[in-house]
Amino acid sequence: MSTASPVKFLSPEEIAARDVGEAAHLKFPELAFVFRDRALRLRQLAAGHPMRDYLVFMAEVADAQHTVLAAPRTVHLPTQDFLGDAARAGQPPLEFPRWTLHEEWRDDLRELLAALAPRIAQTPALAVLQGLQTSEPAQLNQQAERLLSGVMLGLDLAAAPLIGAALQVYWTRLVHRTQSAFPDLAFGPILDHATVCPCCGSQPVASVARIGGDDAGARYLHCALCQTEWNMVRIKCSHCESTRDITYQALEPAEGAEQSTYLVPRGAVRAECCGDCGHYLKIVDMAKDAHVDPVADDLATVALDLLVSETGRLRHGVNFMLLWGEPAEDSQALEHSHAGAP
User: Fold this and answer.
1) Are residues 69 and 150 in the same domain?
2) Which among 38, 49, 74, 80 has the fewest CB atoms less than 10 Å away?
3) The domain spanning residue 228 has which CATH number?
């Protein structure tokens, strides 16, 4: 008579410590697809959604981003010494304000607005767009700096998604060109700052549980700015890196009701909540829906943010397409963010 072997149940810490295949530390976006595919996903999610008009508007923005990113552009790149200094300091090399704003970002904004204008000619957003087209460079830079620094005080919330869209195009191209020019030097793990992008130092918008090949089962944080993804083990807080008290919340249809047509498939988007620090970040699961996009699906599940925030948890990360939070109380925050900048 055979006896069954004892079953060992792994703790969250043990699960988090397990390696997932040979998943790459960094995944860079494919320039020809990243914004095009996002636009497609936004339109898919818009069907029947209470935020349909906004999701369709953001799809138009993503289409404009795709157009601008595909256009030729000369980009000011960091030097080898600059990258080496950042690596020795353990800092993301293209983090603002270590990497200062160059005028190329305003070129991207100007072309993005020009591409977008005919698409939204009959909408209220046109007035915001035209206001940006007539703004002075110093004013545009100030708004961009506030957005990059997370300073809400004085930020034009109506214009912020368009400024953020241009900054995404600029930094996505910048990271791609830098990686191409310095493939062995540009970017690597930032061990002391694992919760921010190793390339540009920005926060994630969400994380992605991937499928296929060596990436199967791996979790990547998706940068809100440069669209790079970096590997972080699962069941680990993306804010404080604790593995002790991780829970998940998801939107569910009301009892007895069919799932609404605008919701992503059940379980495809969940809020990963940390009991230690009180923060959460959404995780989108490609095993549940292969077409999930971190930015698009985050926008389409604002109801989940509202439900989780009612429990007192704070959102970690940022989505430049829809900002959360109250205006900053500290009017010196922006100035402090520049302290010691070269």
Assistant:
1) yes
2) 74
3) 3.90.1670.10
